């Protein structure tokens, strides 16, 4: 049995046992080869209670930690084995003075939205570093006990005992690890991916905000129900919901993506008096009378906007009649070209494939001009949004997606290429976690601002 003040590996003097589970011990120790150097020593005893899979995980943890260099991950120092009647494997890391978030929760600490935002940003920085390594490193056990609040309130990610140094490949499985309540479904089937760590982070943030372990909170369709227990800005609730989305395909896919979405939301004050509501108490039907009418666009605009409680429809006219002038050169080319083609075919002086190629170019240009003349429709309802045109009575959908995926709507300048030249035009952009979609190309700043305000208001993003 290991005892305090005992020196192991001729170097590490054990001071205080910090934790113990079957076959594992964690000690606060002193590295006597370095003056006043406090370290953490993790020990694994190979015996009846420890299987080869445990040893493999322990060795993988040591191997991965050797490669890591991040200020919020305790630095790897050493690994060793001791054959003293019982084979011990040891792993040594720097000691981070502080308390785990689990300890702070147990002491009654309750976290504000601003504090949780900062914790989320800290961990997302670490996860961005880990996930963008080659191969990526997955922690697989993010939870309050593995997050240390250290000096300056910086959050450190510790305990890489469940680490996986590559993402799950199609058809491959890995050792199943994780903590119930924090690990997502796909991880318990041995198929953890980068987004699995994001789910664990989301569940951890829910624990910090509610003070209740996510395993003890009610669920609906596997989704943790917490919004009715907190007073947060609606957008922050939506952001956490996307982190803790049960369906991995609908979750944020990367830590960088989640961090950028959090930053984009930072302009909204956590002191906002609008309190988030749970999905079951949504007030979609309680729209103000002003939302039940056709809104007037800016002066001299031809855009039409109509909205009800259940639908928002924007009609953006195509290019003006002046753009028909673009067809004149094409018409002239066709008038001149047809007789030439007829005569050429008769004389067989040019191959037919060349003629066909030229005709296709003319038709493509004509089709492009005609497409620009068609009005664009942007439609939102409570389940999906779509951007489309109608041609010859048929709807031609160019973009569609889920309304729940929308993170932001804004207008910005976008560069378009026309042959070798480029031009900048203002557009309205719909941002989702899957990507960005734009419309209203070339509209005025006032028109774009008006559209953004109307859409954000209808979607309740403001």
Automatic annotation (TrEMBL):
Keyword Transmembrane: yes
Protein kinase domain: residues covered: 12-268
TM annotation in the entry: 321-340, 352-371
GO molecular function: protein serine/threonine kinase activity
Top-level taxonomic group: Bacteria
Classification via SUPFAM superfamilies: Protein kinase-like (PK-like)
Signal peptide: none
Annotated InterPro entries: Kinase-like_dom_sf (IPR011009), Prot_kinase_dom (IPR000719), Ser/Thr_kinase_AS (IPR008271)
Keywords linked to the UniProt accession: ATP-binding, Kinase, Membrane, Nucleotide-binding, Serine/threonine-protein kinase, Transferase, Transmembrane, Transmembrane helix
Pfam family, one: Pkinase
Annotated stretches, region: Disordered: 270-299
The protein, known as: Serine/threonine protein kinase
Organism: Funiculus sociatus GB2-A5
Lineage per the UniProt record: Bacteria, Bacillati, Cyanobacteriota, Cyanophyceae, Coleofasciculales
